[in-house]
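#struct-pred
JK: can someone run the complex with xanthosine-5'-monophosphate? inputs below
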Amino acid sequence: MANPFPLSTVLVLDFGAQYGQLIARRVRDLNVYSEIVPCDISADEVREKNPGAIILSGGPASVYAEDAPSMDPAIFELGIPVLGFCYGQQIMAATLGGTVSHTDKGEYGPAPLTRVDGVDCAGCGGTSKLYGDTPHEQTVWMSHRDAVTEVPEGFEITAVTDVCPVASMEDAERKLYATQFHPEVRHTPYGQEMLANFLFNIAGLEPNWTMDSIIDDSVAAIQEQVGNDRVILGLSGGVDSSVVAALCAKAIGKQLVCVFVNHGLLRKNEPEEVEEVFTNQFDVDFIHVHAEDRYAELLAGVTDPEQKRRIIGEQFWKEFFAVAEEVADDGEPVKFLAQGTIYPDIIESGARKTGGKASTIKSHHNLIPFPDGVHFDLIEPLDHFFKDEVRALGSALGLPDHIVHRQPFPGPGLAIRIIGEVTPEKLDILKNADAIVREELDAYNELLFEKSGERNGEVARAEAGGPEVERSVWQYFAVLPDVKSVGVMGDERTYQRPIILRAVESSDAMTADWAKLPYDVLAKISSRIVAEVPGINRVAYDITSKPPATIEWE
Ligand code: XMP
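RT: done, C-alpha cells with the ligand placed:
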C-alpha cells in the first residue's frame, strides 16, 4: 500500500492488540499520519518506510508462549524513537536483555501509578520526557498478567504501581520508551498527553497531517495516478462511495463517471437525494440506471434470503458492467474503477499482509473477482482512512450530513427487510413505515448526540474498553414480516400486516444491544405508522440483542 502522504509517518507494529487500530487513531487525532503494520516487519522494510517514530502495540500473548509474536531486534538499532505499550514493553524488555516474569496477580482496569523518574523537575516531580508535566501520581489503565521485572541495560524505571515493579521504563539516550499500561485508552487520563510528548518532544514530529493537507495530498495522488484517463465508480449512496465520488470530483471533475444503479430497494427519497447531490453539487458525469423493473422481475416469487442477496448482487454487476461498456464505447476507454475500500477493509481482509488487492472488488460484505474479460485498474483513495476520517473528509468536501452520517445500510437494501417475497406493494408499505421510523428516531438520535457527543457509536468504538457513555442509536429501521393479524380500526375489523421496529446500539455491528428507547418515542412511532401507512394495523418492537439474533431480520 503506497503512502500518499509525504509527511512523517508513525508505524504501529501490531502484536494482535485489542487496541491496535485505536493507537493509530490516537496518533492521527494528534495530526500525525499513522499506519498499522504486522509485527514481523523487517528492519529493512521499516527503514524503507522511513517512519518518524514506531509504536509497539499490546497483544494477548505471553512473550514466553511458543507461538508468541516476535519482532526483528534490528528495529531497535535504526535510531528511530520507539514507544511500546503492554506487550510492546515486554517484547522490548525481552529483546534487549531484560526479564519478563509471570506475576501471581494480574492487573486489570484502573491502577494508581507513581512516577519515580527523579524529583528535580519543577512542577511535576520528574525528568521523563514521556510523562512531561503530567502529575506525580495518576491513574492508568492496566490489562496484563506478565510483567517486566528487570529492565535491560541502559534503561531506567520511570513509574511503578502496587503490583507492577516496572509500570514504565526508558532509555532516553536511545529514545526507547515503554509502558506496561495503555496510554491509548481514555481511562488513562494523561495517555494522550504522553503520546503527544512522545511524538513532538521526543521524536520531534510536526502536527501537520490536517484535513487541508489530507485533501491536497489525496487530490494530487489521484491526479497523478489517473492522468488524462477516465474513472468509473459504482455509486451506492453510501458514505464510502459518495466520499470517493466527491474526492475524485475535486481531483478530476468530468473524467469521473458515477454509475448509480437504482434497484428500487433503497429507502424513501434516497435515489432522488443521491441524484440531486451528484448532479447539482458536484460536477461529474452522473448516470442514473433505472433498473427497478428488472430487479422486481428477478425477485418475483423469491423468498430465500440468501437467494435474494445473490440475485441482487449479481444483477448489480451486470447493470454496472453493461453501463461501463456503453461508456467505454462512447469515447475514450475507461481505464480505472474507483471504489470506496477503507482502511479497516484492508486491515481486516489481510490484504495489507499479502499486498494483493488489485484483483478484487469491494462488494457488500465480500471482495469479489472481476468477471472474465473485464479489466480495470483500481483506484482506492480511501484505503488509508478510518470510517470517521472518511466522514470528516466527506464533510470537508461539502457532502451533506444525510450522506456523511448515513447509517450502515445493507447492499440488498429493503429486500432483506421484507420477509418472504418482495412485491411492489410491500415495498411501498415498508418505505412509508421506514420513513416514519427514521423521521422520529433521527430527531431522538440527534438529541442523544448533542448530549453524548457521539454518533453511530463512533466515540464508543474509539473508547473500546472505555466507559459506558450514553450511546446514540447505531441503526434503526422497519421490517415487514410475512404474517397478518387481526385489528380494529374505527368500527371495522382489519386483517393486516404488522411492522417490526428494530433499533440497536452497537459500536461495530459485530454485537449489538436493542436500544432502550423511551416509551413516548415508541408510542409516537407506533401511532403514526398505524395512522399513516395503509395496510399496517400493528407495530411490534424487537427486543433481542445480537447474538443470539442478528441486526437484520434476513
Ligand atoms: P447482521 O444482520 O448480520 O448485520 O447483524 C450486521 C451489519 O451488516 C449489515 N448487513 C449487510 N450489509 N449486505 C450488506 O452490505 C448484506 O447482505 C448485509 N446483511 C447485513 C447490517 O445492516 C448491519 O449493519
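RT: quick notes.
Residues 309, 364-365, 408, 410-412, 475, 509, 546, 550-552 surround xanthosine-5'-monophosphate (CB under 6 Å).
Residues 417-541 form a domain with the GMP Synthetase; Chain A, domain 3 fold (CATH 3.30.300.10).
JK: thanks, will look after standup
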